[in-house]
Automatic annotation (TrEMBL), chain C:
Source organism of the structure: uncultured Nocardioides sp
Record's keyword annotation contains Transmembrane helix: yes
Keywords noted in UniProt: Membrane, Transmembrane, Transmembrane helix
Transmembrane segment boundaries: 37-57, 69-89, 153-176, 197-219, 239-259
Alphabetical list of Pfam families matching this protein: ABC2_membrane_6 (PF06182)
PANTHER family: INTEGRAL MEMBRANE TRANSPORT PROTEIN, SLR0610 PROTEIN-RELATED
Protein name as catalogued: Putative integral membrane transport protein
């Protein structure tokens, strides 16, 4: 199938940078170690902060390091290719392709995510398992399967938001400022900077309702067994609703951008 | 004194290759002689073509001449100094143009790039203005000075690059594939400019190229390098003799005829009434023409000079 | 090679190149300001994260929020200045791959100056000022004496020197493997993140390695203990507080060595 081919091609493209991958795994691991100790100090003071214990906190840190690149929290991925193609005008070629443009880029981004999961996801995770007794794998099959599903939804959510940011290049001369802002927001509200569960109210509730919670907090909570049974389904449903909204918005933006390109010639 | 003096110049690279024969991950160290015992010298004011097939050692030589790469053997001096030891010092006296990539700052307008170069090379303001004016006029860059480099076409960029390499009045200009990717008009203009530069300022030029028309238009002297060794050093005319090259006499007969047979020439091709005869490039055409005209009814005659590309191909295949 | 005139000319040459990039950046003011503000916000959120921790706790590793703010501000200013001044050195691998390193080698300006000043980003002032604000907030309750002021200034300069050395030294790896630019991040940004927290959150072995092996502890930890008037929790001698400049100089010397080795490797293999 076409989309599988697109995904495979992107996977291969990323897998040519071996040196970068090894360096990245190392860097992720260094940050994982730093945050693990910082969080352990926090949970040492308040052993039940956010409903986590120290072991949950350490596991959370390493899930975060594993997902940082996989979910492309900072930005990057095929949406960067899109922004570049909009800038150069090559996007016109994409617009006339007979297949859906969004599906095309999404398939590519899933291929990229698969590569990053297998390398920069699994690399630090193995290290965490070796270094920290507190690091735990999912406690049940339900948690493991739920995590995988939630992770796929996380990548799609992140893709949808990055898509919107990249499409701003249709109207803005230089979208790097917006891209950086979006990265900062994602970093904070995904729970990458600090687990959303220890935010004070009402910020905790607000942050958990935003789409960025999908990136890390939701999959991590499923991994940790904090959301089980119906609650797990509710978590996945929330991710699904945001995806529907954001992809719909993305489609709308693309349509008006297409009109702009067709009418004004770019 | 020679401006460039290379004696027995060599450059060996050590590469690690996977052992093909055995099924092992062990890599074999292998020495590659990119440049091997090359000796030549260039006098001030010369225009020299440095040619050879891909991987022959041209770029390696240019890198050594500019001091980017340290030779592994032999002696090399440019303007009296050893390039790799005095790279920064030598930089003020040479200009370099790489055809495949720009030496300008990609995101900045040409004018900013030039102004920065003025400071970097400590070019006197008066001299800088004079040079800039001259090159901008000669290379028709006037309207492009405020355009960022990334928006320039290849030809425009190349003109910008050449200006950048010349603002500080270098004694020698190295051009690595300067006409690559340019259209015919741009190529012609560039060659014209380089001729003028050499004639008016006496700038020594050393260029590597794949386009032998560059050589024919510019260089009195050619150095041919192949597999890292010097295959030829001399005039372009001499190269024809060396290569055992042939000139071609194209004969249009009144009627179709079997292959012409005359002494000193042989038929290479017959097509209807037209026949192609080749004879050695260093022999006179007169006896051949006379012999053909004496035995056949000729409608028209013309002589084709040997193609330098064929000559060089011939040279490579023999070395 | 590095004779006096070359060294004397270097700052001026650096300034020319940097100025040109500043002018180019300011040609698009909207873009410049969004990037500057975004930079400040990104690092600012770091501190917001730490502040949020303190809504559930009173001390982290036995340090209060104001005390952590001093550590955070000092390492942030030092890293920010180093990043602005020479952060571009991380692009060596890119220069190797695209061949622009060869172009730089044919110019009469030291390679390090060219690489560091390339794409000079004034927008990093955003992050620096954010760190400076946190530092100022931390400074309010401190009982300032001339000695503490002097140690604080020394801390910032030495911290800059240490990060400077890290940027250069770890970027040199790219002379051998051109696509490993992210490796340096583990030491520069990683070192910055590590020193945002009081080292008491780490086990003793980690603190020992951060003191003797990869001495980021001298960026802010030891001088800050002096400024805060605290005993060393790990029992290190109190004069470690004044050792930072010496550590910075030693690291700079090592970085210079790494740089020369890297350039020599490049000019002797051409790849």
């Amino acid at each position: 199938m076409l989309y599988v081919a697109v995904a495979t091609r992107t996977f291969r493209r990323y897998s040519t940078y071996v040196g970068a991958t090894v360096a990245g795994i190392f860097t992720n691991s260094v940050f994982g170690v730093i945050y693990s100790f910082a969080y352990l100090a926090l949970w040492d003071q308040r052993p039940d902060a956010g409903g986590y214990d120290g072991s949950d906190a350490v596991t959370y840190v390493w899930i975060g390091q594993a997902l940082l690149m996989t979910v492309a929290v900072w930005g990057g991925g095929t949406t960067d290719d899109l922004a570049e193609r909009i800038r150069t005008g090559d996007v016109a070629i994409d617009l006339y392709r007979p297949v859906g443009m969004m599906g095309w880029y999404l398939a590519g981004d899933l291929g990229r995510a698969a590569y990053h999961l297998l390398t920069r996801g699994i690399g630090p995770t193995v290290l965490a398992w070796l270094l920290f007794d507190q690091f735990d794998f999912p406690g049940s099959v339900q948690a493991a399967l739920g995590f995988v599903l939630s992770l796929v939804l996380a990548v799609v959510t992140s893709f949808a938001i990055r898509w919107l940011v990249a499409c701003s290049a249709f109207w803005l001369l230089d979208q790097s400022g917006l891209r950086m802002m979006a990265g900062a927001l994602a970093l904070f509200f995904s729970g990458m900077a600090l687990p959303l569960v220890i935010f004070p109210e009402p910020w905790r509730t607000i942050a958990l309702a935003l789409p960025w919670a999908s990136y890390l907090q939701t999959p991590a909570d499923i991994w940790l067994g904090k959301r089980e049974g119906l609650d797990l389904l509710a978590a996945l449903a929330q991710q699904g609703v945001w995806i529907a909204v954001l992809l719909g918005l993305g489609q709308l933006v693309l349509r008006s951008a297409t009109r702009k390109v067709v009418v004004q010639g770019g | 004194m020679a401006l460039i003096d290379a004696t027995d110049l060599s450059r060996t690279f050590v590469v690690r290759r996977k052992d093909a024969g055995r099924r092992s991950l062990r890599r074999r160290r292998e020495e590659v002689h990119a440049v091997h015992g090359v000796t030549f010298s260039v006098e001030p004011g010369e225009m020299v073509g440095y040619i050879g097939p891909n991987g022959a050692g041209k770029s390696t030589t240019i890198k050594m001449l500019t001091g980017i790469l340290v030779p592994t053997g032999g002696r090399l001096t440019v303007a009296g100094v050893e390039p790799s030891r005095h790279r920064t010092e030598l930089a003020r006296r040479i200009g370099v143009v790489f055809g495949q990539r720009t030496t300008l700052w990609w995101d900045l307008p040409l004018r900013d790039s030039f102004e920065l170069l003025q400071k970097i090379y400590a070019i006197e303001p008066a001299r800088y203005r004079e040079n800039l004016d001259a090159f901008v006029t000669l290379l028709e860059l006037g309207d492009l000075l405020d355009t960022p480099v990334r928006q320039l076409s290849l030809g425009q960029r190349m003109r910008g690059d050449i200006t950048a390499a010349l603002l500080h009045d270098p004694e020698v200009l190295y051009l690595d594939e300067p006409t690559i990717g340019l259209d015919v008009v741009s190529k012609g203009r560039l060659r014209e400019f380089l001729r003028t530069l050499n004639a008016e300022r006496g700038t020594t030029l050393l260029l590597t190229t794949h386009d032998l028309q560059d050589i024919e238009a510019l260089c009195d002297r050619v150095i041919v390098i192949d597999h890292g060794t010097l295959a030829y050093d001399g005039t372009l005319a001499g190269l024809h003799g060396r290569g055992g090259s042939m000139r071609t006499l194209v004969v249009d007969l009144v009627d179709e005829a079997p292959a012409i047979s005359v002494p000193g020439a042989s038929v290479r091709r017959v097509e209807g009434p037209r026949q192609w005869l080749s004879f050695p490039a260093d022999a006179s055409a007169a006896p051949v023409v006379a012999a053909v005209a004496a035995s056949y009814a000729v409608a028209d005659l013309s002589i084709q000079e040997p193609d330098i590309e064929d000559v060089i191909r011939e040279l490579y295949s023999r070395s | 090679m590095a004779d006096a005139s070359v060294v004397r000319a270097a700052p001026r040459q650096y300034a020319w190149i940097a100025l040109m990039w500043i002018r180019a950046a300011l040609a698009y003011p909207a873009s410049f300001w969004t990037l500057t503000v975004a930079g400040a916000i990104i690092t600012g959120l770091d501190f917001v994260g730490i502040a949020i921790m303190f809504t559930t706790i009173d001390t982290l590793g036995d340090f209060g929020l104001r005390e952590i703010a001093l550590l955070y501000g000092a390492t942030g200013v030092a890293l920010g200045l180093a990043d602005m001044a020479i952060g571009s050195v991380e692009q060596i691998g890119h220069h190797v791959r695209t061949g622009s390193l060869d172009t730089m080698l044919t110019r009469p300006v030291p390679l390090l100056v060219q690489v560091c000043a390339d794409r000079f980003a004034l927008r990093r002032l955003g992050r620096i000022s954010q760190s400076a604000v946190v530092l100022a907030w931390a400074a309010v309750p401190i009982d300032w004496t001339p000695a503490r002021v002097a140690v604080t200034l020394m801390m910032l300069v030495a911290g800059l020197g240490i990060f400077f050395a890290f940027f250069v030294a770890f970027s040199c790896i790219q002379f051998w493997t051109a696509d490993a630019s992210e490796l340096a991040n583990a030491f520069t940004y990683g070192g910055n993140t590590m020193t945002q927290y009081p080292l008491t959150v780490f086990p003793r072995e980690v603190v020992l390695s951060l003191t003797f092996l990869l001495p980021v502890a001298f960026v802010n930890w030891y001088p800050s203990l002096y400024v805060l008037g605290r005993e060393d929790p790990f029992g290190m001698p109190s004069w470690f507080a004044f050792l930072s400049p010496a550590v910075a100089l030693a690291l700079l010397a090592l970085a210079a060595l790494a740089w020369r080795t890297g350039v020599r490797h490049y000019t002797s293999t051409g790849s």
